[in-house]
Structure formats: C-alpha cells, structure tokens
Amino acid sequence: MNSVPDIFRILPEVVLTITGVAVMMIDASLPAGVARRSLGWVAAIGTTLALWASLWQLSLPEGTGFYATVETTAFTVFFHVLICGIVLVSLLLSLDTLPERNHHQGEYYALMVFGAVGMCLLTSAVELLLVFVALEISSISTYILAGYRKETGRGPEAALKYFLLGSFATAFLLYGVAMVFGATGTTQIYEIARLAPTAQNHGFVLLALAMMLAGIFFKVSAAPFHVWTPDVYEGAPSPVVALLSTAPKAAAFALLLRVLYEMLPTLRPVWSPLLWVVAVLSMTVGNLAALRQENVKRMLAYSSISHAGYLLAAFAGLGSSGIAAASFYIAAYAAMNVGIFAVVTLVSGYDDKLPLIADFRGLMYRSPLLGSLLIFFLVSLVGIPFTGGFFGKFYSFSAAVGGGAIALAIIGLLNSGLASAYYLRLAFAAAQRPADRSAETPLLTPQVGVAVGAALLLAVAATLVLGIVPGEVLRAAEAGAHTLQAIPEAGAHVITMAPQLKP
Amino acid sequence: MTTIDQSILTLILLVPLAGAVLVALLPDRGKLPNWIALLTALLSFGLTLHLPAHFIAGANGFQFEINHVWIENPAIFYHVGVDGLSLWLVVLTGLLAPVGVLASWNAIKERRKVYYALFLVQQTAMFGVFISLDLMVYYGFWELSLVPMAILIAMYGRKDGPKAAVKFFLFTFIPSAPLLVAILWLYARTGSFDFATLQAAVVSGSLPAGPLCWVALAFLFAFAVKVPVFPLHGWLADTFSEAPVAMAMVVAGKLGLYSMLRFHVGLFPDQARAIAPLMIALTVIGILYGACLALVQRDFWRLIAFATVSHFSLTTLGIYGLTFTGWDGAIYQILNQGVIEGALFVLLGVLETRYGSSQIAAYGGVASKLPRTATFFVITALAMIGLPMLNGFVGEFLILSSTFTGVSRSWAFAATLGVILGATYMLWLVQRLFYGPDGELATMKPATDLHFRELAVLVPLVVLMLVMGLAPSIWMSTIEKGVTPPQVKGAAALHETLSPKPVIAGSVLNASSRLEAQR
Question: Which one-letter DSSP state was computed for residue B62?
Fold first, then answer.
C-alpha cells in the first residue's frame, strides 16, 4: 500500500543524527591538543546534506510513515528546509567566533545538530507522543547550549532558568496530551481531529488545548510566557542565541499550526480569541519593554517577543491564508534575526565584551561592512519594503484583516511604528560618529572570516529574496498550508473514516 | 530605438543601484568612490535626458511604460511610466545627482564609500517614486527613500545626528502606516494596485464614499507631512541643519508635492475638492508662518528650512486651488525649487566649509573676500524671491494669478504678502552674510573663492534659472499636457483663467489611452 520506505520519511533526521554521532565520535577519537574547528565543517556539511534530503522529499508522494507517526508533505519540507538553513548559518557563525580555547567544541557542534534533529522531527510528527519526544530532543540540546559560557555567572544562570521554566512548559504540554488521550482515546493527530468534535468529555479537550497552548507559547516566547527570554538571550553565547531565537521557534510555530489548524480546527471559536489576546499582549509588552533596554541582546530578546505577536496575528487568518502567512513570516523573521545576531556576535564577541547600545556607537566608522549589515537587518526588522520584514508583516496583517480581525491589524501596525523607535536607536547609534577616536583599538574592529562571511551572505540573500521576490517562498508556504488543511484520507496504517470536518 | 524606449525607465532605476553596488565593492581609497559616484550620476542624468528627447508631446497618457507581473499574490505589477507631470521631475532628479556628488566632493571626508553608495540608493528610490504607477511599488520606493537619508543624517549630522535622524524617520514613517492601510483597502475593494484602474474605480463611484473619504485623507496626511504643510513641519528645520548638504538638496520637497498632485488630487478629485478650502487656509498660514519664522532665524540652515516651508506652501496652494493654471505653476515651481535650492545649498555649503559656522551673525562683509560666491548667491536669492526674468517668477506668478482669479482674492492677497516677506528675509540674509562691516569670520579666517568644481555645479544651475525664466514654454508644453485632461484638450490651460470658478477635472491625468494607440 505504502510504496515509500518509512526511512525516507525521516531521511533528513537520519542524516542529521548520523552527522551528530560522527561529530561526537571524531571528537572523542582526536587527541586532546588538536584543534576541533574542523568538526564544525563536518556538522555544516551534514546539515547541508540534510537540507538537500528534505528538498528531495518533495519528490516523494505525500503520506505518513512509521505507523502514522511522521509525515512528509510540502508543509514539513518547508519547515525542514527553514530549520536546516538556520542551523547551517548558526554553525557557520560559530565556526569563526567560537574561541579556540573552548574545550567543548566537539559537543557544541554535535548539540547544534542534535537540536536540529529534534526541531525537524517536531515539524513532521503527527503523533503527540512523538511530538513530545521531539520537543525534548530539541530542548535538551538548547538548554545545554544556552549555558555554554560556564566561566561567567550569566551562562549557567541562563541555562538553569531556561531548563526549569522549559521543563515546566513541556510538562504542561504533556498534561495536555494526556487529557486529549483521555477524551479521545488516541494521540494520533488525524484521529483526534476526527474524534474531538464528538468527544463526550468536551471539557477535557478544551483543557488539553489550553495546556498545550501554554507549553507552545512558552517555546515561542509569547507573552505572558515570555519572561525567560531576555535573561536567556543575555546569558547565552550570541551564536547560540542566533539559533535559539529562530529555529526552535520555527519548529514550535509549526507545531502550533498543526495543533490549531489540523488537530482542533473545530475549536476555532475558542482558540481564535485566545490567540488574539496573546498576539496583542506579545506585541505590546515586547515593544514597550524593548524601548527601555540598554543591552542589545535584551532589546533583541524583547523584539523577538513582539515578533511572536505579529506572527500570531496571522493565526487570525482563515484557513490556508493564515497558515501561509504565518509560515512566510517565520521564514522572514528567521532570516533577519539570524543575520542580526550574526552581526551582534561579531561586534560584541563571543564573550559579550561590548553588550550595550552605547558600545555600538560608531560601528559604521569602525567597520562599514558590519555597520551597514546591522542597519540593513534593523531596517528589515522595522519592516521597510524590499526586505523580508516588510512582506512578513504585510502577509500577516493581510491574513488578519482577511479573517476579520481589523483591530488586530491596526494594533499591529501601531506597534510596528513603536518598534521602529528602538530599532532606529540602535541603527543610528551605529551610524553616529564615534565619540572618541583614540579609543579605537584592534579589538574593536572585528574581522569577518570565510565562514562568518558565508553565514552573513546567506542571511542577507534570504532577507533580500524574501523582500524582492517573495513569490516562490510564498508559493511553497501556500503549498504547505494546503497539505496541512487537507487531512489525508485513510492514512497508511491508521484506519480512518472519510474526514467529516466541516467547521 | 524602441527597445531603448521600452527599457529606459528600468535602466534609470538600475544604473544608480549598480553604481551603489560598485562603490560598495571597490575599496575606499582616495577619491575613488567620488569618481564612480560622479560617473554613475552623470550616466543616469544622461539616461533621464533620453526621456524628454523622445517624449511625444502631443500624446495622452503615460509613455515609456513598462508593465510586468512582479508578485502574483497580492497582484503587484512592476508598472512604471512617465507623463508630462513626472517627466521633468525625473530629469530634475537626474540633474541634481551630479550636482549633489560635486557638492559633497570635499565636504565628506570620512567613509566616502558608505556615503556615495547610500546617495546613489537614494537616487534610485526617488526615481522609483516618480515613475511608479503601481501603488505598492510606489509605496515601496516611498519608504525606501527614507532609509539612506536617515542613515546619512545620523552619520554626518553636525551636532546631534541620531536625534534628527529619528525625527526625520518617524515623521515620515508613522503617517505612511495609514497610507499603507489605505492602499490595502483600495486593493481589497478593487483587486488592483494599478494607478489607472484605481483612478477609474474612484471616479466611477463604485467605492463607498464614507471610507473613501478616510482613504483620501490618509494619502493626504502622508504627503502633507513630507512636503511639509503647516502644522506638520516639525522635522524639517532639524533635518536641514543636520543632513549632509547634498542630501537635503536632492530630497527637499519634490516627493511630497509630486505625490499630492498625482496620488491625492489625481486619484481622489472629489475628496480633494472637499478638503481644498482647509488646505488653502493651511497653506496660506504656512506661507506667512514660514516666512515670519525665517525672518528671525540665526542659523542659515534653519532660515532656509523655514523659507522652504513658506515656498512649498505656496506650491501646495497652487495644487489645491484646483485650477489648471495653478497646477502648471505648481509643477513648474517644484522644478524651480529644485534648481534654486540646489544652488542655494551648494553656496551655503561653500560658506560653511570655508568658515565652519552656520551662524548668520558671525558673517558679514564676505563679498569682498569671496566675490564670485556673492554674485552667485545674489542671483540665486533673486530667483528665489521671484524676480521677473528668473525662473521663480514664472511659477509664483502662475500660482498667485490662478489663486486670484480662480479661488479667492483675499487668499491670493494674503499669499502675496508671503512673497513680500520672502524678499525681505532673503535680501536681509544676503546683506548680513555678504555686505556690511566685516564679521569676525571674514576678518579672522582667510578663505578661497569658488573652485572649478563648484563653478561647474553653479554655472549650469544659474544658466538654467535664466533659461527657465525667459523661455518657460520649453517645459510648459509638456507640463500642460500632463495636467490638462483630454476632454478640454486644445484649450490652453492658461485660457482657463477666464472662467471664474475652479475647474476640477474628472482626473488630472488620463491614463486610459495608452501609447500603443498612438503608434
């Protein structure tokens, strides 16, 4: 019946796992004194292969594998490519910025790759228990990565905070899964979708939805589940934050889309107002708090909270328009956010020697390349046309208006006006003439190596492509949206009735 | 030739951008960025000259049109074209590019590469605003035009660059949010961003009048801030006194005034008529207010900023008088302002780089030290205050006479007071800077008169002032064509002053007949 071998359904994950294991094995077998930088290249090549593998999956017929626990559709491929792309850029970024003296380089690269395994699996899982496992795989890797700067106090603090709050949130998600199982007797998403509308204990389904949403909102750092974000971003090494602020979020948003649009679309009247509130809260809280930040990474942390809000606005959109808008926004957000953290990494250094906005003053004069790139990514975050940020917001708010949430779109627009104030503060601080020319030391003129150069080039290219010719990516997002909407009839191993979902 | 006609506008857009990329890629060594920027600017100016040379003066509608699908969802088309309204603005933008490069030649000493790359990006954005016929593309360029200017203000600001940059950016960025909403509303109703389609939809009356009123207001608000119209002028003085001279020169005024004429009066004629009395009142206040404030400024950049408020208000008056003559005059005045302010900014920049101060009180008696500068300055000042035979006169006369006959005698009278005040502050400025007892700067600092490079900028501009004053018909024939709608074709716009009531056309610009029909 199912002609595609199951292993092909998880090919990118397999490639990534092999890469991660290989990195660890090579690391263990290398003598102590040998530089481990080349392990980063191994990881990068493996991630590139995984990216190709996900693209190759497009040629497979859509369907599920491993007893209907994972699926490959245009939707999963979209997010696989996105996540692999982000991890690749983060790896390239780490290659040049991770200090040589760091004695855990091998683990670092392996953890990044294992994190990618979890995130990728999260987007393709259609079985809630597998969702939980995938979430744990990705979370545990990122918990460790967040605390990588052990020598400072902030590193372990960040990791511990992230770990405690994160496990709490995952526990919520797991409770939700248990409730759903109690109500419907299954953890398979299509089955739940079929059974939930007629479930006898409908209250349990609602409770499950609330708990799962709490868990996911934590992962995407939407208000009021955002409090961990600034501390973790501040404490974690910048190349890790580049990953942390984008890839796990992309995976969690994919999960959110799946839960809301595929698993419980019939509960739209319940979750839609809830998301409205969370979207408005995230935007407003994020932007207002960001206005007052002096530390660049904290400011960007709050900015990422507000971006989660803009993104959630797309969920007000009906059907595939909302899914496509949200998917597009995630891609645009990832491109510009990875880019800006790459620049911040280069300017502040792995050790965050120059963490404040005031320290960025005169960057344009110290290093025109980095200054221009910083301003470019900030302009994209503001949402100026011809950058990815513009079309991201454009599609998101259009979807909201299309879904009838005009007030949400207006609040979003006002918020993006507000947000421009703090983005500009950083941009213009970077453009300003340096206060004291004699303070210029070689330390302050960062060097851009080959790997970092490639990372920046990828981020810039992605941001520009999404801003100038968004058609192709939008088509991919729409294709994904349609596969998410259309619940497959009689999956490979699950015997389902013809879907009778009429919202 | 036809292939060039079909791609000339794309070339005009891309050449400065390519130049910017080239500047960015090549090393920042010596004057290399300057030379590349100059060559690019000259090349793009040459390309813009292709437009009037091959413009078919008698034809209606847009010429050199290009219309391709850019993005399918939403349906955004790369649709560009020029008509009598935008033709000379494109050429003016092209002309000011080499002038701007030469004006910054020695003024910009650090990070030349960044400066010239952004300067050229700004050129592309401005060309884009003038030639876009798809509202989304137009909006894109409108927003893009903010970015290089704001960065350069922050980088090269004289005192507190970042503050002025934020002010400049937010003043334009925030009103453009309602503009975007309005554009999206139009798209939701009509399914198109195309200027001609929207124009037809608005005129046909198929759109609900209530929301349309707000949409028109959102357009007007965004443009009025950019011009700026009183009381939205808060950003201008800081921007002028902080921005690099050449940037202030190329950006001033044109974008907002053109957008008003094309996208407010041109797109929403009924709504424009409804709000015209308010706009006329505001512009007359602006004329007098700007002139009065200009009288009391101590810093010459701020003086010019308020003088600009006054002059642009006069131009806006011409637009909202809603007479063809007024529109002719307004467009001509936009061109005049570009040329005159170009020269003025160069001259003041010369003074500031020589003496390092923009305080008027520090000057005095400079004419004996820098006689050529003084001569050029006097000619420019006279052109600005509207001396007959120089270009300022033609535009001001058309606007004021159309207001007098077509709108209201009392408003025209009040506006004319502004012209008198204008003469006062400009001549007083000339007197305080160049004549009278020697100021501290003139005695303390030795300075050299205009260099060859500065002359190369100023001589063409001054000649242009004379030619535009003596033979306005060269420009007027195409401008009238752009302004006069086809139904009154043949009747020269100037004759329309005979009718006492303002004539409002169904549309300023007729886009229905395409160039293809002519061939």
Answer: -
Tell me the C-alpha to C-alpha distance, in Å, between residue B98 and each of A57, A183, B102: 54, 74, 6
d(C-alpha A106, C-alpha A26), whole Å? 8
Q: How far apart are CA B252 and CA B312, in angstroms?
A: 10
Q: For residues B215 and B201, what is the distance between their CA atoms, to the nearest angstrom?
A: 14
Q: How many domains does chain B have?
A: 1
Asked whether residue B470 is assigned to any structural domain, the reply reads yes
Instruction: Give the whole-angstrom CA distance, residue B88 versus residue B475.
Output: 8
In a domain, B109, yes or no: no
Q: What angle do CA B130, B132, B135 make, to 5 degrees?
A: 120
B335 falls within a domain:
yes
Residues in A touching B147 (Cβ below 8 Å):
379, 384
For B470-502, what is each residue's pLDDT tens digit? 888 888 877 877 766 543 333 333 333 333 333
Distance from CA of A374 to the nearest CA of B (A): 12
Based on its alpha-carbon atoms, the radius of gyration of chain A, rounded to whole angstroms, reads 22
Are A384 and B150 an interchain contact pair (Cβ–Cβ within 8 Å)? no
Taking 3-state DSSP, the helix, strand and coil percentages for chain B, each rounded to the nearest 5, stand at: 75, 5, 20
pTM confidence score: 0.89
Q: Compute the distance between CA of residue B407 and CA of residue A108 in angstroms, rounded to an integer.
A: 75
| Residues A269-286 pLDDT 10s | 888 889 999 999 999 999
Could you state, in order of their start, the residue ranges of all structural domains in chain A?
6-497
Query: Which tokens go with A250?
Result: 């992309």
Task: Classify residue B140: in a domain, yes or no.
Answer: no
Alpha-carbon distance A311 to A330, whole Å?
A: 7
pLDDT of res. B174 = 86
What tokens does B289 get? 């207010």
Nearest CA in chain B to A398: B184
Q: Residue A498: count other Cβ atoms within 10 Å of its Cβ.
A: 8
> Domain limits at B362?
275-519
User: Could you report the per-residue pLDDT of B374-405, keeping only the tens digit for each?
Assistant: 889 999 999 988 888 888 888 888 888 888 88
Query: Is cis: bond before B178, omega within 30 of 0?
Result: no
- The interface pTM score, or ipTM, of the predicted complex is 0.85
Residues A494 and A384: their CA atoms lie apart, in Å, by: 47
Q: Is B158 on the interface with A (CB under 8 A)?
A: no
